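User: I'm curious what two different proteins look like when written out as structure tokens. Can you demonstrate?

Assistant: Sure. I'll show them one after the other, since each token string lines up with its own sequence. Here's the first protein:
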Amino acid sequence: MEEILKYFPEIDDVQQERFRALEELYKDWNLKINVVSRKDIDEIYERHVLHSLGIAKCVQFLPESKILDVGTGGGFPGIPLAILFPDTAFDLVDSIGKKIKVVNEVVSGLGLENVQTYNCRVEELSKEDEYDFIVSRAVARMDAFVRWTKGKIAKKSRHPLKNGILYLKGGDLSEELQAYQNATIFPLSDIFEEAFFSTKAVVYLPQKFKK
């Protein structure tokens, strides 16, 4: 929890309480349904919560904006971002039912009212739904992810950063991103000093990308 306050000292008491409650909720549910690796569960604030919040260092989501978290797994990055931005709507999608079950229980346990969950593939969401940003943590290569999420990004941008994809990725991205000329890489090592983030980044791909 100290790591969260170190980088986000402005969070209010309600947000602090929710971030503190995360650890026990995940440890309890992870014993029943494994959604966080056992080696990572004791490092949940650094490797999952703070990692997710790296996106918030790239863009501050505005009230009433809509964010889609694709392949949310145990609720990352969606749940930490939903705590940080309580006036922003988050849709969390995963095709694996047991993972969405855990997400629902954590959302309920935290009393989050700005999160909706969907147990389906992203391609099965309503074609009417559009989002300011689509977020995720390395569920696929960028070309596959772009294909899955086609048509889901709203055309009108309200943020300083144009609508698009914010993708948490690691390692050498040069080959994977060579087809996307206007992708921007935000190294998390420039933001967080912990060694875990030395090879981690947020990849931003605006809606109208060039190949």
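Here's a second, unrelated protein for contrast:
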Amino acid sequence: MGRAMSRSLVATLALCAACGGGTPAERPRVFGGDRAVDLQIPPDFDESRRYPLVLVLHGYTVTGFVQQAYLGLKRLVEDNEAFVVAPTGISNSQKKPFWNADPACCDFEGMNPDDVGYLGGLVDDIVDAWPIDPSRVYAIGHANGGYMAYRVACDRADAFASIVVIAGAAGLDPAACAPSRPVSVLHLHGTADIEFAYTGGGMFGMTPASPGAVASVERWAAFDGCSTTRTPGTPLDLDAVVPGAETQPEAFACSGGPGVELWTMTGSEHLPNMVDTFVPTVWPWLLDHPAAR
């Protein structure tokens, strides 16, 4: 089904659900066309509310389902906090799902899928069909999904309020990114990550090399009109494997609404063990950073 036809059909279904005896059951719950994914809907859905929407972006080789489970994001749906959608990228010849986010990661076979178009269309269609607050659409990505979160923030800043990046990077070329409005960024990165090093480099140290965590976040601070000064916050205990409060938040000084922060996880590896602590810590940050107006 073509993009224009899909958008038209979804808008019609949404309109019918909202008028003359229509019910939420008549709204579409599967999106993405040939790359279909289920929209996860709060069990006590309230027609009078406008909900946040969270797009989950998985790392290389895993699926949206696995990524969501790892981060514990299902609780946002179960607690009636948000709609969640966790798509899976296409698979390469080795049957490894990936996102075509940047030359550095992770379309290693040159398949060149239009993942920006796919993910942007997915969000557009869900916002059209359900009572989503367009100022509270968020992307959360790990590793390759972190690269992809930066990519959609570059190319579809109109659709996303904030992104959370875990162990990802902002990409190879700053000139390839021209966000149409500020997008808030929270970047978490372990200093013991050997796949996407905190200090930068290619995957497992290979080329091409991406910027490190500090350079990635500084780039976005510049995009959002923030100063280069970072102010430390209260240390957090997010990784159950690393003793003590291993995570040091640092916030850039921004004006006009956006927030840009780097949370350095000293001693944490590529997959921090933070399932139980991630959502209650990060979700309030996202709610505090709606789209800039």
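A detail about the second structure: The longest strand covers residues 132-142.
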